[in-house]
Amino acid sequence: MIPVAYARGDGIGPEIMEATLAILKASKAPLELHEIEVGEKVYLKGFSAGIENKSWDTLLACKAFLKAPITTPQGGGFRSLNVTIRTALGLYANVRPCVAYPPFVDTLHPTMNVVIIRENEEDLYTGIEYGLGPNSYYALKVITQEGCERIIRYAFEYAIQNERKKVTCFTKDNILKLSDGLFHKIFDEVAKEYPTIQHEHWIVDIGAAKLADTPEAFDVIVMPNLYGDILSDVAAQIAGSVGLAGSANIGINGAMFEAIHGSAPRRAGQNLANPSGLILSAVMMLNHLGLTSQAEQIHNAWLVTLEDGIHTYDIFKEGVSREKVGTKEFAQNVIKRLGKVPSKLKAVHYKSASKITPLAPSKKASQELAGCDLFIISDNQPEVLAETLQKAPIPLTAIFNRGASVWPENKQAALSDTYRARFINKTPISWEEVQAVQKYCTKLGLQITGLFALWKKEGKPAYNLSPGEQ
Ligand code: NAD
Q1: Residue 15 near ligand 1, beta carbon < 6 Å
Q2: Which pLDDT tens digit goes with each residue over 397-456?
Q3: What does the domain layout of the chain look like in residue ranges?
Q4: What's the pTM?
Q5: Exposed, middle or buried, 410 (CB in 10 Å: 0-12/13-18/19+)?
Q6: Which CATH number fits domain 367-461: 3.30.70.260, 3.40.50.1820, 3.30.70.1570, 3.40.50.920?
Q7: Which of 242, 306, 328 maximizes ligand 1 atoms within 8 Å of its Cβ, making it the mutation to test the pocket?
Q8: Is 145 helix (H, G, I), strand (E, B) or coil?
């Protein structure tokens, strides 16, 4: 028996979980189920992360977590349960298949069958933000080589194991040359190890437009966290209904499976909700646990139910559907069809997944300190500020305002209150020399709100260069 944790959640959560558990039980999947409580009640008991300490032991002892949606109480002071669990279990890959089921579910894209694989731990979701000026905030986008390799390799392995033909990468590396640039570079490198899978890269803005207009052009798409968050919702919505999509969060210390929709409180307690999103999440969980025959059996029975016209209210359509059913009855209909395969929709066939090859530890790049960027609050014009800063112990090479150069060339029409002064030495320097620059500026009476070290990696600048900088 495989130990699995589950939580009934809030709103429609308990009903769709009951329906899903009934199907899992009927499939005879060898699962040992352990219930934990998460969500609104736990938040209101005073646990700001929505989960009690004792539940962590269960989560960590289990091989997977099947989670129904929860309601996040309104107001401040509550942390996202998903973000907490993702970080604690190292859930680096968010996998969301977005599939159209024509003619049984209305869609403008009848041949759509896209899987979005989103990096789940890094990027702006690390939530590292700073108020570096009286009226300005900066957020750090974190992209690491290990994070990129893990998610990109996962995407290619997913493609192989699920008989997909192409992996597409979305980034914005025309602007974010270092962070998104790293994601793109590693994508190209990892792709070489999978010659049977086609690969391509799109700039995320035009890629997103193409995805919304012609999703048939894509197969598997891998992307950094923020783009993936936004575009996986777009993809699920245009495939048909939010009530149909499941998702997997795969990690180092565990895996979590949940429907993509929320707790839909207005539909709660009425036996109305479509349990399909959670049922398909449970199918992904069974596959992850290696229980492929039960996964295949449930998924095919679900497809047969759909094509037999047994539909919940959200996808019910006169002339297409045969019977409008509630949550419980939908599950009973799936159970009745266990062992059947669809005749109109494409049947699924799952085979045991091979484990993803562990990564060789990446070579640590040599780095040397080249200078620093100081964030300075000043009402002075850039050329006045530059005059004093030029006498600092390390040469002043540029001053920026909101990312654009304002000295030696001024390319910024509207100035904010925060300048970023760049000091770079031709030869490597020490921390003491950086501190000397900081001391010098403080002595001038300038208000310093932040400092970033400027490093060179393998002799190349690991910071953005402004035009003319070397
Ligand atoms: P929602 O997804 O809960 O509901 C939006 C609408 O979609 C519903 O009113 C309903 O008409 C429809 N819908 C959603 N799921 C359905 C289903 N299974 N069957 C039929 N119709 C369905 O989004 P929301 O109203 O913005 O959020 C409600 C609560 O859920 C909020 O507290 C939010 O924070 C939370 N939420 C939780 C999760 C999660 O636990 N993973 C995800 C998203 C939102």
Answers
A1: no
A2: 999 998 888 999 876 678 888 999 999 999 999 999 999 999 999 999 899 999 999 999
A3: 2-336, 367-461
A4: 0.90
A5: middle
A6: 3.30.70.1570
A7: 242
A8: helix
